[in-house]
Amino acid sequence: xxxxxxxxxxxxxxxxxxxxxxLRKVSWSRLLPYSLSQVLGAYLASGLVYLVYYExxxxxxxxxxxxxxxxxxxxxxxxxxxxxxxxxxxFLDQVVGTAMLLxxxxxxxxxxxxxxxxxxxxxxxxxxxxxxxxxxxxxxxGAINPARDLGPRLFTLTAGWGVEVFTPxxxxxxxxxxxxxxxxxxxxxxxxxxxxQRMVGVSPPT
Length: 206
Fold this sequence. Notes:
Shape: globular
Strand content: under 5%
C-alpha cells in the first residue's frame, strides 16, 4: 500500500476498485486495467513462489500436483472451501468478508467520519485484513480478494494442477482427482491450510 498509493491509490483488490468506481472516487475507465493488473500481479507472484519452493513442492507431493488429499499443494497458492460447504454459502462467506473489508477501508478516508491520518492508513488496512483472515477463514480460507484468489488459481491451472483447481469441494472423491491418486493414500478431510508449513517441516499451531 505504501509503495503504490501515490501512483494508483494502492488498488490491490478488484472489489475495492469497483466500489470506488461506484462511489465516483475512481473513473470507470480505470476499472478494467486496474483489475487485470491486479490479477496479473497475483499470477506472477504465484509463479515466483513456485520457483522459490519448486524443489520442496516436488519433494512433498512426490511429483504429483494435486488439489485435495493429504499431499495436496494447491492450497499454497489459492484458498479452498471446506468439503461440507455449499457453493451458495461459499459465495455468501466471501461477500460478507469483502463487505467488512470495504466498510473499514471506506470509513478510513471518509471526511465526515474523522479520517485516519494518511500515514496510518496502510498499517490499519493491514490489521483489518489480518483480523478478517483470522476470524473468517474457517469456511473458505479468507481470500476476500478476487485477484488474490483468481490469479494464483489460474497459475496452478496452467502450472500442472489442472482443472481440479476449479472443482467444487463436493466432488473431491470423484473424477480425475481419484484417478491420479489411485495409488496414493487418500483422505476425506478438508483441504490443508497449513500445507506449506507441513511441507517445510514446521508443525501448524494446535
